[in-house]
Amino acid sequence: MLDFSIGLRPLLNDYALRQLARLGIHTVGDVLGYFPRGYQDRRNIPRISQVTGSGVQLVTGMVEAVTEEVVKNRVSILKCRIRDVSGAIELVFFNQSFLKPVLKVGLQLVAAGKVEVNSYTGSRQLMVSELDIIRSEADRRMALGVIVPIYPLSQGLYQSRVRGIILEVIEKVVGQVDDHLPLWVRDKLNLMPLSDALKELHLPTSPHLCTAARQRIVFDEFLRFQMALVEKRQVRSRETTDIRFVSTHCLLDRYMESLTYRLTADQTAAISDVVGDVISGRAMNRLIQGDVGSGKTDVIAAALLLAIGSGFQAALMVPTEVLAEQHFRRFSDQFSELGVNVVLVKGGQRSRERKAAIARMASGEPMVAIGTHALIEVPVVLPNLGLVVVDEQHRFGVMQRMKLNQKSMTPHCLFTTATPIPRSFMLTVFGDLDKTIIRELPPGRRPPQTVFFPLNAIGKVWELCRGQLSAGHQVYIVYPLVEESEKMDLASAMDGYVGVCQEFPSISVGLVHGRLPSVEKNNIMARFKSGEIKVLVATTVIEVGIDVPNATVMVIVNSERFGLSQLHQLRGRVGRGAARSYCILLGKAKTEVAQRRMDAMVQISDGFQLAELDLKLRGPGELLGTRQSGLPNFKMADLVQDQSLLSLAHRTAMRIFERDSELTRIENAGLARWYRSATPFTVETRLN
To answer: Which SS3 state, helix, strand or coil, does residue 332 take?
Structure first.
């Protein structure tokens, strides 16, 4: 069995070791896992006279002449003329002076790049992106007539040199690689053996086999991560907690009786899931996912009352002060008749209010503590904490969520989000949580009609707003910036506020953004909610949690600057009453991706469909942010391209632990070693 951690000194000379060290490659495992970033098919390179068209082209020929000139701003332009039997072409390199002494007349080169025509001479030029220098017959065998791996390199390293070193290691060790996957997994899924996959990725023989090799490595990456999530859930399922709630008590019953509307079937099912968790004797770890306006707040209220009615404290953490204030007002009003105390903790609080709230929480008396990230600060003590609720939880970092959980030994944890989550994220970032989805909207809710207008059609937008205002309704107008940016040609909330006041001189207009002091911000929001302010100009501070049923128009200025998820959240601020509502996207879609976002918003009202499209358009890293979300860094796997393999890995991980919960069977010995080598944490750390 090959030990991937062994060093490379027995296999390579000092020069080769230094070359690989520049790439961070020090062990056999580093070499095997240093995957190419792409491939070039050089089995049939056209003659130079045949090279035409757009896109990346391949050429090969002998060096005829090399010249260099330095233009303004000290930019070096290196030109190398190469020739074959059919003609010649000029290779162009920018700021690569180090190549000049290397490109000797008579050497054969293989180059890839885009072909352009010199506007002065009319001759063809190849703007080089990849270069191979043929110095020996060995170089020729690796660079011509084959499919060539292209590795990520640092400056001064050559593809041919690094390719040769990696190939030398591969040929010496790949035959010793044992396959960690049990035979039943490989046979059932028709996966390529690991040693074959590694060899094919570094020394490809055909596009078909190279694709199969990549699928094997991607599956392994997903499987290892899915096994960690499945095991984490397995450990939690066996963990007991002393925090056990009472399922039936008058607080929850009285709250349900006080509602002036009936809960949807999905809301009722979500509450049943929560009740089942908190009376089970195991710590709840559940994600409630529901589209905007689906009624998650009632589910949160039920969970809070279950905790208070059972004699525990409950904490509700939200991402913004505006949302914290709204939850505080709502639950204070609804719970006051039930005799339930609600306290608020946030960053902009007065010292006296903050100290009083912290003191009340430290007493241990049953209460609901609502706050922003201020809840996780050291002075906040909740000695009787039985329930943690994190609303819009994806906006918090992994460590922030953990800090709140650690205010108690094993509190029940409920995570909620109004941002629809793509399936691949559900299986990775949230793979260790139980999940409940609320798809059904309350009766009478109609999705807003969404329309895109170019910026020069703003007059039509104001006419629509006037019609709604004259009918007694209210309007949101959202801008992407607080103040005008010199670097970005975007309307700002400050300038927008002035323009809106001029457009509607007889209408009360308010301005709210994140830089406003909390007192002023809350005052403006309260006046808008009461109807005193008719038009609210804002930034995305109003993106989540704001509930004003009388608001029927959402105008989003420079809408192309927002992601689909954010646009959908903002759209969800209207359509919360019985009247017809509108979402107006005002902007200029300068790119194809921006235009696709605008078209999707107009055509699709389902947040789950939009989430999948947003993932494809923006990619996983930008959509959630790797650091904040806990999104894993995969070497080769892609959450967009490889969703089917992710689902397959999830099902396989479940099956593995169903058959062998501790991975102690002989058939799983290799699998256990491979899995534990990258998952060296204990049961206790896995729980966190």
So the answer is: helix
pLDDT of 377-428, one tens digit each?
768 888 899 998 988 765 555 555 566 566 666 789 898 887 777 777 777 7
pLDDT at 483: 67
Structural domains of the chain, with CATH: 41-150 (2.40.50.140), 250-438 (3.40.50.300), 449-604 (3.40.50.300)
The better pLDDT of the pair 234, 75 is held by: 75
Please determine, for residue 688, whether its predicted confidence score (pLDDT) is greater than 70.
no
Q: Which amino acid is residue 602, in one-letter code?
A: V
Q: Is the pLDDT of residue 304 over 80?
A: yes
Higher pLDDT among residues 467 and 643, named by residue: 467
Can you tell me the mean pLDDT for 130-147?
Answer: 89
Paired strand residues for 77: 69, 94
Which of 111-120, 241-250, 381-390, 620-629 is predicted least confidently? Answer: 620-629
Q: Cα-flanking dihedrals φ and ψ of residue 134, to 5°? A: -90, 105
Q: Measuring CA to CA, which residue among 558, 307, 544, 532 is closest to residue 413?
A: 307
pLDDT, average across residues 490-507: 87
Distance CA 258, CA 331 (A): 13
* Strands (E) located in 157-302: 285-290
State the Cα–Cα distance between residues 322 and 191, nearest whole angstrom.
52
How would you classify the pairing of strands 75-84 and 87-94? antiparallel
CA dihedral 541, 544, 547, 549 (to 10 degrees): 100
Query: What are the distances in angstroms from CA 219 to CA 303, 589, 646?
Result: 38, 37, 7
Of 611, 576, 605, give the one whose Cα is nearest residue 294: 576
Report the side by side order of strands in the sheet with 313-317: 342-345, 368-371, 313-317, 385-391, 412-417, 285-290, 434-438
Element (H, E) at 260: none
Measured CA angle at 545 (ends 622, 351), to 5 deg: 100
CA separation for the pair 625, 622 (Å, rounded): 5
Cite the DSSP H helix spans in 504-542: 518-530
Chain-centre distance of CA 598, in angstroms?
Answer: 20
Average pLDDT of the chain is 86
Q: Per-residue DSSP letters for 558-620?
A: TGGGS-HHHHHHHHTTS--SSS--EEEEEE---SHHHHHHHHHHHH---HHHHHHHHHHHH-H
Residue ranges of alpha helices (H) inside 340-457 are: 351-362, 398-405, 423-426
Judge contact between 607 and 561, C-beta under 8 A. Answer: no
Output the six-digit token pair for 677: 């080598």
CA dihedral (247, 251, 254, 260) in degrees, to 10, reads: -90
Amino acid at 136: S
Q: Please give the DSSP secondary-structure letter assigned to residue 435.
A: E
- The residue behind tokens 């180090």 is 98
Whether residue 318 contacts residue 345, with contact meaning beta carbons closer than 8 Å, is answered with no
